[in-house]
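re: ur question from yesterday

yeah so i grabbed the chain u mentioned. its 95 aa long if i counted rite. heres the sequnce exactly as i have it in my notes:
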Amino acid sequence: MKRRVFAVCLCVLFLLTALTSFAVIVEAADHDCTGEDCPICAEVALCTQLLRRLPLILLVFACASRLFYAVRKTTRRVYLPAFCTPVTRFDVLNS
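ran it thru and got these structure tokens back, copy pasting raw so excuse formatting
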């Protein structure tokens, strides 16, 4: 249950990030540029970079979380107690 809540929260966070960046780009599309050091152009460039890198960020996060759970599952099986009974094995694996 905790994993699902965490996954939904992360999905909402990424979606809000993408929508906010997109909204900033759309809002600033017809601004009056002040020249080379325009802060609005810098903000639009930053949002554009974020939108371009968001799929890579999602891929890295998905791979890292999968690796974390695989390592966690493997290490739980390796460190079973020496006096292994069906009851203690069930307790260790489900904790």
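noticed a couple things. The mean pLDDT is 81. also The chain has one domain: 2-93.
anyway ttyl
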